[in-house]
Queue: 2 jobs
Job 1
Amino acid sequence: MALSAKSLILDLLSTLRRGTMPVAALVEAGQIFGLADNNVRVALARLLAAGSIERDARGCYRLGPTAVPVREQVVSWRHIDQRIRTWEPGRWLVVDTGTVQGSAGARKRRERALRFLGFAELRPGLAVRPANLRESPEQTGAQLLALGLESDALVGVLTHLSPDIEVRAAGLWDADALADGYRSSKSALASSEQQLPQLGEGEAMVESFVLGGRVMRQLIFDPLLPEPIVPAAERSALVAALRHYDRLGRACWARFLGRHDVPSLRTPADTRISDGTPRLWH
């Protein structure tokens, strides 16, 4: 799927250290990714009208208030290990939306919110995840609301599930695919690290944006499952590898950002990969 001007703008603004970028930089970044100047300017106008971005006194753009909760998820991958705690088997967080009425758009936002925090559907209207998040159930509920969950959904804790339901709950995620993904992405980062010094500036910017962003997005949507459901050590190894690659990616973008007097950024999250998971931005 081709990169859209909207995705490029939101991805860049979500990962800037100070959160602002002049229009000239956004337009030039679009050129590097093959986007026409007019496409970028039209996307800026539409995002501004929708409140997804805003313009400061200097004419630079930053994310608007409605995009801030998603941005917080975007940057959370760096501290994954701080977001979880030891799981007490048999204890599950639950979100009950069985009686919630909403539009198709509301359901889409709900699904994205649940996916951001690693919930999976146990039965229609009932989503669960291991209760291994460091936040309290109340704090998790507040996060879900900020990300788009309806206010009349119920968020709580389930314990003492029957053995067969416990097995079903633990099997809601493809643990083998998650583990394979950790290893594959770690290998891809290592290969790209060897290739980046041989690329031109624009090619290196694109390479680091696409690959670093894809792996970042993988971690942003990772359900943060505990042992023994997944090999958590392999997830931690991927996080460490991405932190290192992120520094390389920022170096690839440094000259471009310096020309536009923009502080260094973290490698943007890639929203172009069509793999059946929710997009970061809607």
Job 2
Amino acid sequence: MEAANIARDAFHTTFKDLLANGQYSDLVISCHGDTYNVHKAIVCSRSGFFERADRFPGKEHEEGKVDLPEDDPRAINALVQYLYEGEYNPHLQDDEDLEASRPVPDNKNNTFHYQFPHTCVGSYCHSPYCNVCPHHTCLSSTCKDSCENFTCRKCTDYKAPDHEAWQLLLHSQMYELGDKYQVVGLKDLAAEKFSRSCRKYWNDKEFPEAVHHAFTTTMECDMGLRQPATDIIAKHMELLNKAEMTVLIHKVNGLAASLLELRAKDVGWIKLVNGTQV
């Protein structure tokens, strides 16, 4: 088994080296000054767009060059990486890794959580088993009003420690490129990365821009990005306290309706039988 893994790693390294050194390259991809010496056997077999560009007469076919001026250079860099490696940076993390990036609970019972809204549990609010955040103090004068379904502003101001919320927009762009350039498997990977990043960076300033891009670059029936974005907003309705989110909901077609439908199902206004609306 170890020998097989070594052989597989060597195979992947060979493809990465081919891209890095451009050896045997027979096609050039360019985007805003960035150039990639690639191989038709690889990119044309993985992308319907590049296959057509090479097959049919035209400037691209005659000169062996394809310029992509309409796209983000960072996204094209990730696209080329995916064509050769089947992955793009940042690599997909396990859910355990995402949870590990949360703040470490500081109470001896390890019962704090960072799911919102918070609610105290147990017979008394001062019970050591309360699932409340470390910033919340139960007082007799405020306990009744403050300890049920409340959202702690200090917790929601939390930012993930690696400051990589920019990847939200990148994953949305990669989903778009997977569709635009007909790249096998890219949309599924980008959708999974987008979904996990939404769960991690939902409270970051980058989130509204990524959601806007996701909704404005996909068809209404394409729920690959729309669904996880809607689910996260519905789960964290405190986001509506942010002006940019309010503008987004009014501006983006389909987002408000999706949120309303999701919340209606949660409160029972829309009846479901075996998961199907009736």
